[in-house]
Specification:
CATH architecture of the domain at 3-181 and 216-241: 3-Layer(aba) Sandwich
Largest sheet: 7 strands, parallel
Number of helices: 12
Structural class: alpha/beta
Number of strands: 12
Distance between the termini: 56 Å
Strand order of the largest sheet: 3-2-1-4-5-6-10
Order of helices and strands: EHEEHEHHEHEEHEEHEEHEHHHH
Radius of gyration: 19 Å
Shape: globular
């Protein structure tokens, strides 16, 4: 690996990966290709902006011409694909955008890999492809049971990857991460939404009874898991990256309120979203066998995360305007009014 194309590298996890790779591997050039939709943010990449080994190109992975131009211009040999529409709520409101990026875009990357002879591609997927897990833990060979348009689009992308591996013998690997949180996360997801709303003493719209269970993974641990699979994962294999830290959503909200010194009366239980999976949980033995271990406890990670949003209002306040407010109003205004 010399010239790594990171698609979706201006997003939350993608930008964390870019920052990590620039700091960790002085022999690698990192090329970011990002469409800069609402969640793509060049501010996420300011820490590496001046590195001579970082390059940015704006474009859509679903454009064959764009991908080919970037790959050939920078002599790309490896792709790490973070590019995706990724918010379940938005997939319910507008599923076509998810099919375009998550399915068509992944197909274009695979086809460019096949035609241009790239060495390896890592595709970043999600635990949501497994669907609701009432008990036990999902393993990599479990069948897919997606319950939202987002989860279905990610599962579809994985099936295309499997087909290209079987048909063309491509060196592809997949990671399936659990519920990831940390600095630079777009404030529509639970933690950054609730942290930034709580800072302003606004009500926190918690879906249903708040007893949904998620496995929480700090973004820096997620990134090292991806790095481990990129360098040591076997071709054609998938690897779960689990935080191994199951918590009810309401527990997490109470934890962030404690960290902020805010009262629990800010919590408002609102109407649940359609197809809301009750629990996700994955077995991570396969990745552990490659030598990976998470380095952050949930308690330390959430304190770091809360403090980052407290210290970086410049980053999130300019996001929470315009289109963001329209989305927030469409998603929560009626629910909050009903809860009142």
């Amino acid at each position: 690996m010399k010239n790594i194309l990171v698609t979706g590298g201006a997003g939350f996890i993608g930008s964390a990966f870019v920052r990590y790779m620039i700091d960790t591997y002085p022999e690698y050039n990192i090329i970011v290709l990002d469409k800069l939709t609402y969640a793509g943010n060049l501010d996420n990449l300011l820490p590496v902006h001046d590195s001579p080994r970082y390059h940015f190109e704006r474009g859509d992975i679903a454009s064959r011409e764009t991908v080919q131009r970037v790959v050939e211009t920078y002599s790309v040999d490896t792709i790490v694909n973070f590019a995706a529409e990724s918010h379940v709520d938005r997939s319910i409101l507008q599923p076509d955008a998810f099919i375009h990026t998550d399915v068509v875009g992944t197909y274009i990357l695979l086809d460019m890999m096949r035609l241009l002879g790239l060495e390896r591609m890592l595709h970043v997927s999600t635990d949501e492809v497994y669907g609701d897990v009432a008990e036990g833990y999902s393993v990599e060979t479990d069948s897919f049971q997606p319950n939202s348009p987002y989860a279905a689009s990610k599962a579809s992308a994985e099936l295309m990857i499997r087909a290209y591996r079987q048909t063309y013998d491509l060196d592809v690997v997949v990671t399936r991460g659990s519920n990831t949180f940390g600095p630079y996360q777009y404030p529509e997801k639970l933690l950054p939404l609730f942290i930034t709303e709580a800072i302003d003493d606004r009500p926190l719209p918690l879906y249903g009874d708040g007893m949904q269970v998620r496995d929480w993974l700090f973004v820096e641990d997620h990134v090292t898991g991806i790095d481990t699979v990129l360098h040591h994962g076997a071709a054609g294999e998938a690897y779960n990256i689990a935080g191994e830290c199951e918590k009810h959503n309401i527990e997490v909200v109470r934890e962030l309120l404690r960290a902020l010194g805010k009262p629990e009366k800010l919590i408002r239980h609102v109407k649940d979203r359609p197809g809301h999976d009750r629990r996700y949980a994955m077995n991570c033995d396969k990745l552990h066998a490659l030598g990976w271990q998470r380095q952050h406890s949930f308690e330390d990670a959430i304190r770091l995360t809360v403090q980052w949003y407290v210290d970086n209002e410049w980053w999130w306040r300019k996001i929470k305007t315009g289109e963001y407010l329209e989305y927030y109003k469409a998603q929560y205004a009626e629910r909050l009014a009903e809860s009142d």
